[in-house]
UniProtKB/TrEMBL annotation:
The keyword Transmembrane helix applies. It comes from the Bacteria. Signal peptide: none annotated. This is Peptidase M23. It holds the Pfam family Peptidase_M23. It comes from Pedobacter psychrophilus. The lineage of its organism: Bacteria, Pseudomonadati, Bacteroidota, Sphingobacteriia, Sphingobacteriales. Residues 56-90 form a coiled coil.
Length: 321
């Protein structure tokens, strides 16, 4: 119940009841409502500016998760791109050389990515740059995979017509990978004796003395005996310009002039010559020039195993000879 208000009338010297007409009541209500609206607007503006609604909080969490997943996706695509470049390099400089095929031109591998804007439908969005960049990377990798698969189809036909050649080319590790303790790769390495950075023309496969050493391809034994620095070593002529050398053996199991098959035991791991520990030093020559043996382990390693070996062999550690 509203309180009755009075005022003192100085003329009548009496307290009289305050009478509020309808207009004053309306103005009073209007003033109250206006004040309430102003304060409500201020509160809502503050809330929208500094406070997030549950929906906004959920959207921000989703955006954060999407950004995190994109970073992971981007890193994986970089890894895939690195593997693709390695496959392309091996295809052009190893496999196609072996089968006397011309390398695939760079413009063919990268064809189809110029000209019209094929990503126009992804423009004018909040995250257009992100979507366009990701889609473009996937398109490039897809195109390169298609070109590479067609190249392998061509090489597969060459393999079928050159089975004898494929049996002769070095294609496996000289040591059973299950018996390896460490690997040193091809390239400049720290020499264990001279302590200088020196070219290492082969790969070192560290393994216990007496571990079998296998011929990596069909061929003829052309040298069995000692060689300065290499100790006890065996050399195999595989034909087609390929020769392999196996050094630091403890003993031999072949003789000069003997024909051997890929996988035959030719000797055993030792520590002879300029060696700082039991291992097999393995070299591959093409037309008289040493080449990286890691490009030829395509018969006994899975893609995952090959990637692990590639990473280990590329480290510039100290060689064993």
């Amino acid at each position: 119940m509203a309180k009755t208000k009075y005022y003192f009338n100085s003329q009548t010297l009496k307290y009289e009841k305050v009478k509020i007409n309808l207009g004053n009541k309306f103005l009073k209500v209007l003033g109250f409502v206006s004040t309430a609206l102003v304060f409500s607007f201020i509160i809502i503006a503050f809330a929208y500016t500094f406070l997030d609604s549950p929906k906004e909080k959920q959207l921000k969490r989703e955006i954060s998760e999407l950004s995190f997943q994109y970073d992971i996706l981007n890193k994986r695509m970089k890894q895939v791109n690195g593997v693709m470049k390695d496959l392309q390099q091996r295809d052009d400089n190893i496999y196609r050389v072996i089968f006397e095929a011309e390398p695939i031109p760079l413009e063919v591998r990268n064809a189809g990515f110029g000209g019209i804007n094929r990503y126009k439908n992804l423009e004018n969005y909040d995250y257009s740059d992100l979507m366009i960049e990701t889609t473009k990377k996937l398109d490039i990798i897809s195109k390169q995979l298609y070109v590479q698969s067609k190249s392998y189809d061509e090489l597969a036909k060459a393999v079928n017509s050159k089975s004898k050649m494929m049996a002769s080319i070095p294609a496996i590790e000289p040591i059973d990978s299950r018996k390896l303790s460490s690997i040193s790769g091809f390239g400049y390495r720290m020499h264990p004796i001279y302590k200088i950075r020196k070219m290492h023309d082969g790969m070192d496969f560290a393994s216990p003395i007496g571990t079998p050493i296998y011929a990596t391809g069909d061929g003829i034994i052309v040298a069995v005996g000692q060689e300065r620095g290499y100790g006890n070593r065996v050399m195999i002529n595989h034909g087609y310009g390929y020769v392999t050398k196996y050094a630091h053996m403890s003993k031999f199991k072949v003789r000069t002039g003997q024909r051997i098959k890929r996988g035959d035991v030719i000797g055993y791991v030792g520590n002879t010559g300029a060696s700082t520990g039991p291992h097999c030093h393995y070299e591959v020559y093409k037309s008289g020039k040493p080449i990286n043996p890691i490009n030829f382990f395509f018969n006994d390693l899975s893609p995952a195993e090959y990637m692990v070996m590639l990473e280990v062999a590329s480290q510039e550690n100290q060689s064993l000879d």
